[in-house]
Amino acid sequence: MTLYTTIHFHNVPTGREGEYAAWFDGKHADDLNLLRGFRNADRFEITPEQVMADIAQPWRYMSVYDFETATPEIDLPALGPLLANAREAGLIDDTRENERIFTYQLYSDWRSGPNHQTGKPFSSMFVIPANFVAGMEEEYHHWYDEIHIPEVCRVPGFVAMRRGRLADVQVEPRRFCPGSEIVMCGHQTDDLLFSVKDFSARARGVSPSGDQMEPRSKAGSFARTVHFFRKISGTERWDGGIAYAGDLSVYPPDFRITGA
Question: Where do the DSSP E strands lie in the chain?
Answer without folding.
Answer: 2-10, 38-46, 61-69, 100-106, 111-112, 124-130, 158-166, 181-187, 227-231
